[in-house]
Amino acid sequence: MTDHVSIEGLRYAWAAAQTHSFTAAARAYGVTQPALSNGIAKLEQQLGGKLFERTTQGAAPTAFGRQLLPMIERALDELDAIAAEAQRLTQPTDRSIRMGVSPLIDPKLVAQMYSMVCDLPESHELVLREADMQELREALSAGKLDVILIPAVASMPRFAHRIISREPVAIVASHAAQGEASDGVADRSETDENKADGSMAEFEAEADASFILVPDTCGLTTFTKQLFASHKHPMNAYPGEAASYQVLEQWASMGLGAAILPLSKLGGSKAQHRRLQDNGQDVIIAYEAVWNPQSPLAREIELLAGQIAGDGTQHESLVLPAQS
């Protein structure tokens, strides 16, 4: 055993312990699975024992790991606290809240957050950045963002999570593909809740269609794949890929395939939109705020997350993966 251990290896090990999977832990940190595996292997060599046993179900701590992983958690907490306190001491006048936003987030949520930041007891400036999920997660991990608003489709170990909004999704297809499902398309001046044309579609009845996807960066494709996986139904993916939600909807209206979109992202195409249901209940996509609980702004961010979630209070937030 050496006198020095890798901090990166410690973080990788704790992420694997929380997600029970090297693959999920690698995804949470935005690294490749081999890079994470190598980092943990080097840490195990430094510590002199194996922390995990790899199984068909994922990764399970060994007896050695069960003894050390709680100590690893405490050590990482202290390291994060040191970094947060140093930031507080060296940047005492910086009152900006740097917020990253996935393109899938409804602009109304962003507007709500802006208004709430303006109403905080102490003056703060909201600095916005829109980017893909991996970029946002990496920036949050590196301390370049204070909070991110993303679809709740993947865990970020050691960060606080709070569901702030949920909305139904719709299945989008051409009139020809839908047959006689509906007599027309909704007026696009309607609210998001009424954007679907009024008819419903059961997942099991639609699941055999060919589904058009966007690049797996904003969270929508991950959500769609998880929906199929939760039903143990193979997904028939259209061989091409749309670059935007607007194109996704347009292609569906052309009859190239079906698509799944949150109601807030429905545009004005002539495609039919039907609320997607599972056994008579709306299929829902959830959005979450994620932040570092050791951040100097953690109290303000938790207050904002509670307010935007609708309870107006500071609520205990989850500091474990919101989704596995």
TrEMBL record:
GO molecular function: DNA binding; DNA-binding transcription factor activity
Residues annotated as domain HTH lysR-type: 5-62
The keyword DNA-binding appears for this protein: yes
Taxonomic source organism: Bifidobacterium subtile
Gene3D superfamilies, sorted: Periplasmic binding protein-like II, Winged helix-like DNA-binding domain superfamily/Winged helix DNA-binding domain
Protein name in the entry: LysR family transcriptional regulator
Pfam entry (one): HTH_1
GO cellular component, one term: cytosol
Family, as annotated: Belongs to the LysR transcriptional regulatory family.
Keywords: DNA-binding, Transcription, Transcription regulation
